[in-house]
Amino acid sequence: MARENTCQFAILGMLCRKPMSGYGLRNAIERTVGHFWQESYGNLYPTLERMERAGLVALEREERSPGGRVRKVYRVTAEGRVALAEWLRRPVVPHVERNELLLKLFFGARVGPEDSLAHVARSRTEAEGLLLALRILDEKVRASSEGDAEMTYWHLSIRAGLLGLEAHLRWCDEAVTALQHLAHTKESKKKRPRNVH
């Protein structure tokens, strides 16, 4: 399924929780599922308009933001709830992850280990920050999940993120060790005196 179509289901799921504006949806997505799903404003607003024309969402009210801008607050319709339930029951469409770090490492021999080491170090720092944020979210969800079935589902997605980040950090350590060894070997070859006959 195309990403644009999947966007509408992310919107429907969020609107099942409560009515929201496009701005509110973007923030809710970022705060809850942002560790594995992202949506841009440029995609959210046109998708909301198409969904309104299709009868999946309806305008509930308009409100003014502190800056004076009018925000449209949408709610999910009965048709939207049916569409979301049908989508949730369909098999997941497999996809291949596009990972620029791995692509750069794959071709890293063209520039040497120093550049690759820098890429891995940046990725490790980012992963550590995400892991810290996800651990905080995990604590909040676990504290409020007592008897709340929805929180159990949320917790499963958070755990996948936590375990994935922990595995990524272990891989970063392995990559650094391998690349440092490669850099050391390269330096040793440069310094080795040539045999003079």
Short overview:
With 197 residues, this protein is mainly alpha-helical. The protein has helices at residues 3-17, 22-32, 41-54, 78-89, 100-106, 113-144, 149-191, and strands at residues 20-21, 57-64, 70-76.
Write the SSE topology.
Layout: H1 3-17, E1 20-21, H2 22-32, H3 41-54, E2 57-64, E3 70-76, H4 78-89, H5 100-106, H6 113-144, H7 149-191
Antiparallel strand pairs: 1-3, 2-3
Helix pairs in contact: 1-3, 1-4, 2-3, 6-7
How would you sum up this structure, described in words?
The protein has 197 residues and is mainly α. The chain has two domains: 3-89, Winged helix-like DNA-binding domain superfamily/Winged helix DNA-binding domain (Arc Repressor Mutant, subunit A, Orthogonal Bundle), CATH 1.10.10; 100-191. The chain has helices spanning 3-17, 22-32, 41-54, 78-89, 100-106, 113-144, 149-191, and strands at residues 20-21, 57-64, 70-76.
Keywords:
197 residues, mainly alpha, Arc Repressor Mutant, subunit A, 2 domains, three-stranded antiparallel β-sheet
Could you tell me the strand content as a percent range? 5-15%
Average pLDDT, all residues? 87
- The total count of helices amounts to 7
Radius of gyration: 23 Å
Helix content: 55-70%
Could you give the distance between the termini?
A: 68 Å
Number of strands: 3
The helix/strand series, from N terminus to C terminus, equals HEHHEEHHHH
Largest sheet: 3 strands, antiparallel
